[in-house]
Amino acid sequence: MNLKYSNTLRTAFCGFLCFGFFMLEQSVFGQTSYTAKIVKNTNISARTLVHELNTTKDTLLLASNSQINHIYSINEDFKREIDMHPFKKQYKLPLANFTKGKHVLVVSQDAKKIIFVVYITDPETTVERT
Question: Rounded mean pLDDT of the chain?
Fold first, then answer.
C-alpha cells in the first residue's frame, strides 16, 4: 500500500514539474500574439526620419538628425492610442499595447509632420498595401 502511494506522489510530482517547465518555456520563448507591418512614407521630405520595425517586429524604431517633438497615432476607430512628446532624436515605441488593425502614425519634427502606417495583425494574417 505504501509503495502504491509513493508511485502516485512521484507521478504527480513529475506531472507538476513538466507543467512548470512548459509554462516557463512559454513565458521565455513564447511568441507574441500579434505581428506588425510598416508602410513607410517614401516622400523625399520623409527621409529625415528613419522609421523601421525591429527584427522581432514588436517595437517601432524612430531616429532623426533633428528632434522628434510629437508622436501620435490614430486607429481605425479614429481614436488616438499614442499621444506623446518625447523631445529626443531617437525613440523606441513598443507596439504591445496597440489594438489590432491599422494605425496612422504622425511624427512631428521641426516644422513638418511625417505620416506613415503600421498594421497590427494576427501572425497568420497577411496585409497588402491598398
Answer: 82
Q: Give the structural domain span for 111.
A: 35-121
Same domain, 21 and 39: no
Identity (one letter) of the amino acid at 111?
Answer: A
CB–CB of 3/10 below 8 Å?
A: no
The pLDDT tens digits for 30-87 are 455 789 999 999 999 999 999 999 999 999 999 999 999 999 999 999 999 999 999 9
63, 72 contact by CB (below 8 A): no
Cα(107)–Cα(82) distance, integer angstroms: 11
| Residue 76 to residue 51: CA distance in whole angstroms | 21
Q: What single-letter DSSP state applies at residue 127?
A: -
Instruction: Give the cell for residue 95.
Output: 507596439
Say if 130 falls within a structural domain: no
The amino acid sitting at 114 is I
What residues contact residue 105 under an 8 Å CB cut-off, 6+ apart? 51, 60, 71, 72, 73, 82, 115, 116, 117, 118
